[in-house]
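ASSEMBLY PREDICTION REQUEST
Request ID: AP-0331
Submitted by: J.K., bench scientist
Number of chains: two
Total residues: 1014
Priority: normal
Notes: Please return the full assembly, not individual chains.
Input sequences:
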Amino acid sequence: MASVAHEGHAHEHHGDHHHEETFVSKYIFSQDHKMIGKQFLITAVFMGIVAMILSILFRIQLAYPGESSDFLSFFLGEKWAPNGVLREDMYLGLVTIHGTIMVFFLLTGGLSGTFSNLLIPLQIGARDMASGFLNMLSYWFFFLSSVLMLVSLFVENGPAMAGWTIYPPLSALPQAVPGSGLGMTLWLFSMAIFIAGSLIGSLNYIVTVLNLRTTGMTMTRMPLTVWAFFVTAILGVLSFPVLLSAALLLIMDRLAGTSFYLSDIIVGGEMLANHGGSPILFQHLFWFLGHPEVYIVLLPALGLSSEIIATNARKPIFGYKAMIGSILAIGFLSFIVWGHHMFVTGMNPFLGSVFVFTTLLIAIPSAVKVFNYLTTLWKGSLIFTPAMLFAVGLVSTFITGGVTGIILADSALDISIHDTYFVVAHFHIVMGMSAVFGMFGGVYHWFPKMYGRMMNTRLGYAHFWITLVGAYGVFFPMHFVGLAGAPRRYYDYSVYNEFNSGSLEQIMNLNEIITIFAIIAALGQILFLFNFFYSIYRGPKAPQNPWNSNSLEWTTPVEHVHGNWPGELPTVHRWPYDYSKPGSDTDFIPQNVPLKDGEEEH
Amino acid sequence: MENKLIILLVIILGAIAIAQLVRVYELSSKMRKTGEHEVSSRDNNLNAKLLLGFVISLFASFVYLMVEYGWTGRGVAASTQGQEIDWLLNLNLVIVIAVFFLTNFLLFFFAYKYVKRPGVPAFYYPHNNKLEMLWTVVPACVLAVIIILGLKSWNNLTGESPEDAIRVELFSKQFDWTARYAGKDNILGKYDYKLTTDNNELALMTTNTIDSSIRLMIEGPNGIKNIQKVLNKRDTVLSDSVTGVLKTDLSRKERLLRLLVQMKNNHSKGVDNYAWDDIIQKDTLVLCKGKDYEFNFRSKDVIHSAYFMHFRAQINTVPGMTTRTKFKPIYTTEEMREKMNDSKFNYILMCNKICGGAHYKMKMIVVVKNEVDYKSWMASKAKETFKDKYFPAVAPMAAAAPMADTTKTISK
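STATUS: Completed
Returned structure:
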C-alpha cells in the first residue's frame, strides 16, 4: 500500500544509520515505535481519502438527487450508479463505510495510533514501547482490518448498509438489505481484527506510560499529550472488548442461528423462528463502546492541541492540573452516558433520565478545558504556525459542536431532533472536525520529528483556511436542515413534496450549499497531501527544536536513531510548560534543564 | 467516450495543478530567508486578522441562517407535548447560542489581540484556583437548571397516558405503516407474529386466526406436508444444497407449528373480541383534535422509528417488543395549513431509523380532524372492523366474555 511504497524511498535517506537492519525489519515489520507511528499515519491517511471520496459521492446525490453524474458513474460503475444515478442501497453502503472508516480507521487508528506511538516514548524519555513486537502486531492487525474493510466495498452485494452503528436486525438479515450479506460479514471480521489490534496497542501504551518514564518524569510532569493518550488507552481497553462481544454475538446470530438480537421477525416473506432476543441489547453493547469511542477520538486531539497551543502561545497551559483532572473526569463519565444514544429506542424512561444527568455532567469538565484554553491564549505571544491555527480551529469546533450536545443530551429535546441532521451536524463538528483538526495540527507540529524535514508553511496556511471554511460551511448549515426535521440517512427528500414543499425547498437549498462546501473542502486536502508527501522527500531539513518547545522529543537527534537518544536518557527536572518564565533569558526552558538556584517549580 | 475525455482532462489538469504547486512550494521556500519553522510577523499578523474576520463571518452567517431558515421548516408544534418541548428547546437554544457567541468570540479575539508583538513577552500565568473554580461552578449551576427542567418535561412526556386516551397501534414494516384503531372497546386485540397470514397481516390473535395459521403451516402451499412430500419423493434426486435448504425450512416450520399449537392451547376465546372490533387503516392515520392519544408501536422486520415531526414525537419500533408514545393534537390539518401558509401541507409520520433501501420513502400521511368530522369518519369505518373485512363468515360477535374465561384453556 501507500505506506510500503513510500517507506521504500525513505530508505535512501535514513538507511545508512542502521547497517544491521534489513529493509524488511526496518520498514515493513518494524518494531521501532517511530516507524510504526508513521505506518499508522500513512495507512490512516489513505483510509481517510477513501472515506472522504465516499462522502463526496453521497453528497452529490443529496444535493442533486436523480441527476446523472459522470463522477458517480466513474467511481461506482453501471452496477451501483446506473446511468450515473446512485442506487439507493449503495447510498446506504457509502454512508455506512464512510462512517466506519472515519470513526475507527482514521480517527481511532490514525490519530491515537500515530501519535501515541510516536510521542509516548519520546515525551516520557523511553527508548521504545514496552513491547516492540506487540506494537508491530497492533499495526499489522490494523492494516489487515483496513484491507478487509476496503475489500468489502467490492463484493457483489455491496458493503455493509446498516449504518456505521450496524443495528440488528437490519445488519443480521441479508433479506432486509443486500449489504447485510457478505459485506456485513467482512465488516464484522474487519472490526474484530481492528479491536484486537487496538487492544494490544492500548495495553502497550498503558504499560509504557506507567513503567518506562525516565528519571524525574513524574506523572504530574508529563505533557498533556501523554496524559490524553494514557487515558485514551484505558478507555480503549475497557470499552473495545464490549464491542467485540457485541460483534461476536451478531456474527453468531448471522452464522450460527442464535437469537441474541432477533425476536419475532418476518422478513422477505419468511417467518423466522428466532424468539427472545433483543435488538436493544445490541444497542447497549454497541454504545457502551460507542460513547467512550467519542472520547477515544477526541482526547488525543485535545492533548495534541494543548501542547501545540502552549508552545505557540509561549505560555504555560493554564491550569495544568485542572486539565489533567478534566481529562480523567471526561474519561470516567464517558462510561456512564451511553444511554443518551437510546432515549427513543423504547428503553425505560427512568433509565433515560439517569443518562440525561450523567451526560450533562460531562459539559463541566469540557467547559473547564475550553476556558483553560482561552486563558492560555490570553496575554500570550501567539505564533500562528499551521499547527497553531488548527489547534485554535479545534477549540472553536469543540465549542460549537459541544454546545449543541447540551440540547441532544436533554432527553425531552432529543425526542424531536433525534436522528435528524441536527445530530449529524453535532457529532461531525465536535468529534469529526475537532479530531481531524487535532490530527492535522499534530502532523504539522511533529512532522519534523517524524521525517526530519519541514512541511511548507504557506501551503499549510492555504490548507487550514480552506479546511476551516469548508468544514464549517458543510456542518454549520446542517443544524438547520435538522431543525427543519430532515431525517438522516435519507437517499432523497422528494417525499416532502407530498406534505410540505416549502420545507423541501429549504432542505434542498441548504443541501446544495453543503455539497459545494464539501467539494471545496475535499479539494483543499490535495494541498495537504501534496505538502505531506512532497516534504517527506524534498522538505528543508528540520532543525533540532523547530518550535522552541520544552518537551523531551525535541532533545532527540533529528536523524532517527534506534533507542531515541544516542547516549544516556535525559533526566527531567521540571514540567513541560515553562514558557516565558520570569527570570529566564529564553522564553522556553526544556524539561531536562535543571532548576536554577532558588528557582521554584511552577 | 465523452466521459473518458472529461476524466482524462481532469487528470491532465490535476497534473498541471500539482506541477504548479511544486513551483509555489519551491519558490516560497526560496523566498524565505529564514527556515520553515520561523513564522514571519507579516504572516503572523495576516493570520490573526483572518481569524478575527472568520469569527465575524461565522457569526454573520449564523444570524443569516437563523433568520432565513430558523426552524420554520417544521412549523409550530401541533401537540400539547410538542409545545412543551419547543418551549424548552427555545430556552436551551438561548443559553447555548449565548455560550457559542461568547466563547467563540473570546477565542478568536484573543487570537487576534495577542498575536506576537516584538518585545512583548507572554504573561507567565500557570493557574488561578479562583478562576478555575468560577468556570466549574457557573456551568454546573446552569446545567443544574437545564437538567431539572429537562427531566421535568421528560417525566411528563413519558408518563402514563390518561385513562380515556384513544389507543392506536402503528405497525411498521419495510417500507410502510399500518394503523390499527382499538375499536369500540378501546382495547387493542392481542397479537403474535406467528399468526401473520395474507388476510391477517397484523397477526391478530383470535381462535379463528390461530386455527387458520395452523392449517396453513401444515397444509399450505409451502406447508410442512408439501415440504415433506418433496423431500420424500422417490423418483427425483435432489442436490445436497436443495435438500439442506428444505430440511432447515422444515425444522423451522415444525418448531413454529409446535408453538402455534401451544398458543392454541393457551388461548382464551374471551379475548377474541378485543381483536375482532379493531379497525385497520392503511393509507392515512386519522386523528381527532383535542383528544389524548396513546400509540403502541410494533415492527414486523427490522427497527424503524416513528417520527411525527410536527407533533414533536418520536419512538423506535422494535421487532419483538412494543414501544409507546403519546400526544394530544391541538390543530386540525386545516388549521395547520393556515399556520404554515401552505394549502397542500399535511402532517406526516416518517421512518427515522435506517431500515433498508427504500427507507426514505417510508411514510404515512396524518390527518387531524375536528371532533364532528372525526366522528363521522369513524362511523363510516364502523363496518370495516377486522372481522367484517377479513373473517365475515365467522359467527357474529358474542357479548364480551366474563373475565373468568380468560384463564380457561381450550383443548382441541
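REVIEWER COMMENTS: Residues 387 and 396 of chain B are 9 Å apart (CA to CA).
SIGN-OFF: pending second reviewer
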